[in-house]
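Bench notes, afternoon.
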Amino acid sequence: MEKLINRRKSKQITIGNVKIGGNAPISVQSMCNTDTRDVEKTVSQIKMLEDAGCELIRLAVLNKDAAAAIKEIKKRVNLPIIADIHFDYRLAIQCIESGVDALRLNPGNIGREENVKKVVELAKINKTPIRIGINGGSLEKELQTVDLPLHEKMVKSALRHIKILEDNDFDLIKVSLKSSSVPTTIAAYREIAKIVPYPLHLGVTETGTLKGGLVKSSVGLGTLLAEGIGDTIRVSLTENPVEEVYAGFSILKSLELRKKGVNFISCPTCGRCQIDLIGLAKKVENALASINKDITVAVMGCPVNGPGEAKHADYGVAGAIKEGYLFKKGEIIKKVPENAILDELLALIEADYSN
């Protein structure tokens, strides 16, 4: 396949067993919405996210009890854990001592430079990567009043804190510059990508619920990824975090940057459609959500054009009058009644990929 997107070259770092930057695949991560102090619920959600394909997980560390819980959580999960730290640098130090795989620090609220240096010194000893997580809504007070566009303030904040780390001979750095404004987010990442060599964590923050959040994230992340910018992504949604993982891989697959999981396509329906295509498409997509096979599956409404329009699909169905034509590699192989389409299509796929 022709390579259409040339990725920005960045320094590679490793978080747990996941490489980020360089020529590593763009990884998909999420954040638990459980109370980190509740080890059982947090472990359960992490395993659910892992089953969905999540590759890194971030945990909110509100206090000392949450930082202590990380040690036990790490024993029971496989995904690398990133501790999300705000306000108290001592929690970052405690998390490193608990064996966390990486840190996310918000320079806007972490405190004095000398405190950041204390974290960096321990992170250097333990080789714990640090993400400098800039948030447009919580910049340092001295930057908030500067007469500059928000994206430029965000870049200035990032560069200031990158320098603190570099001055302490630390370069296991990842950077994010998130805003709830899509244009601001895009502008900030474009600018920082030209200045620093470090891997970039992409995200649009506070995007909202599933429907609107998917649009904002897809536009923001998709624009940057199409320009070759970005090494790991999180789709922020007010929703079950599993949806963030599915959305992340869908964005990457749409740009042909990852092939993890099924590539699902379906037509928008029209007056020629004589089956419940919308209902069928949803059922097929849900049934395939947990299948990690590099295949394309198409659900089409028209028996004449369906297989032709989806001839690149590995498997599919084209609707007819209360029935459907199953096809494989663009060739029709079987006609089945409408109420059997779902089971027959899944059986066709399973027959090839059950071993």
